[in-house]
Design goal:
31% of the residues lie in helices and 20% in strands. The protein has helices at 2-23, 50-55, 76-85, 101-114, 136-154, 164-169, 173-178, 262-269, 273-280, 323-330, 334-341, 382-388, 393-400; strands at 29-30, 36-41, 60-67, 71-72, 89-95, 124-127, 158-163, 181-184, 201-202, 204-211, 220-225, 251-255, 293-297, 306-309, 312-316, 354-358, 373-375, 413-415.
């Protein structure tokens, strides 16, 4: 009888061991030890003090270069120059919006033209997370064309940036077999067991969109990378012509004329003296010279007196305006306008300056969701809204054309799908 029991128990043990050993077949883990601290940035962060960033322990910075087929990130050149100057390893990413393979090829050409002549240390990145209603099969074809085209045009390795949801359900095995993964996942990235994706390894992990780093005002994405993130060839990218007649960079260069002042130039272009000083590295704002070239970042989405976008208002100040008059016109307080525009002296506003103003009356939208829009409530953050709808902050920013993800306002309408 004892022998019979033993004979019955042994198969049960073997079955149990088989189940344990095979139940966790699926997992996504780092390619090797993730030990390089990083950030990824764009015009959302505004001007960045990269000396402070480097001193805080950041080693790698991924910089947004472009989006779509004609939008060059306004801060791309500044971010690249200053990050390199402070010894940081740099990489470039493109936000893909193509809805067919022809558009994917055009975006690849545009991305390659924007980064021409630059010397990246890290693999190029395709950030593809807004699919415009195309099927999974179609989006894989689009991704394949873009990735292959960029690799051919730049002779550089390129990888895929994806959140976990799209890594599981959107991208296929062919993409994963040929292009490595930078994963966006804000949970416990050390414990991604029983998670089936086309990839088994990641070489980068974006683990939060609410990071704080010295030298950067507001939140920034934080990342960890393995050594596989680095390029084997860091030679300058070959020159690739721009396929477009023009590029929407939201950036212009102004040649200083005799009699010009920084304050006058700032008023003319709707910016601030402080911004001009920062991005042009001016040591003395009272000393500019005829013939000097100044880089100016402009808000190309705001034209005319008033622009309404995603439920908010941008107002261009006219001669004779006061903050109290503007505030009364829109039913908001002076302190509200001062706060959201970071105005140092509310008694000094200038014609041509563009002010962000929140609609006070708002709309009758359901505060949760109606017709794919969300109405921002007091206390909301973009990160919280993104998590609520299972998307990334980048997705919302690019979908809504948000310049600063740290500035959203009660009553503002955000498209979420």
């Amino acid at each position: 009888m004892r022998k019979v029991k033993i004979l019955l128990i042994i198969p049960m043990i073997l079955v149990f061991l088989f189940f344990v050993n095979n139940h966790s077949d699926y997992a996504i883990t780092p390619s090797n030890e993730p030990r390089y601290e990083g950030i990824d940035v764009s015009n959302w962060q505004g001007y960045i003090d990269y000396r402070e960033v480097a001193n805080s322990g950041i080693q790698v910075v991924y910089i947004k270069a472009s989006q779509g087929s004609n939008i060059k990130d306004a801060y791309f050149d500044i971010n690249y120059e200053n990050a390199k100057a402070n010894g940081l390893k740099v990489g470039f990413y493109h936000f893909l919006t193509a809805t067919n393979t022809n558009e994917a090829e055009r975006e690849a050409q545009f991305f390659s033209s924007v980064i021409s002549g630059k010397e990246p240390d890290c693999k190029l990145v395709m950030d593809y997370e807004v699919f415009g209603g195309v099927s999974a099969e179609e989006s894989n074809q689009i991704a394949q064309v873009f990735l292959e085209s960029v690799k051919r045009l730049t002779n550089k390795e390129i990888i895929v940036y994806s959140d976990l949801s799209n890594a599981r359900s959107r991208f296929n095995r062919n993409i994963a077999d040929n292009y490595e993964l930078w994963l966006a996942y804000y949970g416990d990235y050390n414990n991604l067991r029983d998670v089936e994706t086309a990839w088994e390894k990641w070489i980068g992990i974006q683990y939060t969109d609410r990071g704080r780093v010295n030298g950067i005002r507001g939140s920034v994405d934080r990342d960890l990378y393995t050594e596989n993130i680095f390029l084997s060839d860091t030679a300058p990218i070959a020159n690739n012509p721009n396929p477009n007649d023009n590029i929407n960079t939201e950036s212009v260069f102004y040649t200083v004329k005799s009699g010009d002042t920084l304050s006058g130039i700032a008023k003319k272009y709707g910016t601030t003296v402080q911004e001009l000083v920062k991005i042009n590295n001016i040591s003395n704002p009272n000393l500019i010279y005829p013939g000097q070239s100044l880089r100016i970042l402009t808000n190309s989405t705001s034209h005319g007196e008033e622009t309404r976008q995603t439920g908010s208002i941008t107002y261009t100040v006219k001669r004779g305006n006061t903050l109290s008059q503007i505030a009364n016109s829109y039913g908001v307080s002076v302190s509200h306008i001062v706060e959201i525009n970071d105005i140092k002296n509310p008694n000094l506003i200038y014609p041509g300056v563009k002010l962000r103003i929140t609609e006070s009356k708002g709309t009758n939208l359901n505060p949760v969701l109606q017709n794919n829009y969300y109405e921002v409530q007091r206390g909301d953050t973009l990160g919280a809204i993104a998590r609520k709808y299972g998307v990334t902050v980048k997705y919302l920013v690019n979908l809504n054309g948000i310049r600063n993800p740290n500035l959203i306002y009660p009553g503002q309408l955000l498209k979420v799908s």
